[in-house]
Specification:
Layout: E1 4-7, E2 13-17, E3 29-31, E4 40-43, H1 49-64, H2 70-86
Parallel strand pairs: 2-4
Antiparallel strand pairs: 1-2, 3-4
Length: 106
């Protein structure tokens, strides 16, 4: 997965890292508070694709809506993940486009 970044509602820029959160958190994902100097979201790289989607949605929701209780965030994100997965949304692997031109010359 590529490295992504985004800016939340308050203009705080977040970076997403595919890196397991510190073991003291015992979590698949972790979102830094928006008042951190360079906040990051950590997502464990060894998750199943469906779980990765759920954790990504959950941690991004924390970044945008920091004060919403964890229970409400999990309920919402679980519903979103379940519906998207039922509708066929899946992670795809792409390769970088070639810079070589392979067309014909007139």
């Amino acid at each position: 997965m590529s490295t992504y970044s985004f800016t939340n509602n308050q203009g705080v820029k977040y970076k997403i890292l595919m890196k397991k959160p510190h073991h003291t958190y015992n979590a698949d994902g972790l979102c830094d508070p928006p008042d951190y100097r360079k906040p990051k979201i950590h997502i464990a790289p060894d998750l199943t694709p469906k779980r990765e989607m759920a954790v990504m949605i959950e941690e991004m929701m924390h970044a945008f809506f920091w004060n919403i209780p964890e229970k409400e965030v999990r309920r919402f994100c679980g519903s979103v993940t379940r519906i998207l997965h039922k509708e066929g949304w899946r992670q795809t692997v792409t390769t970088e486009p070639s810079t070589e031109w392979s067309g014909h010359v007139k």
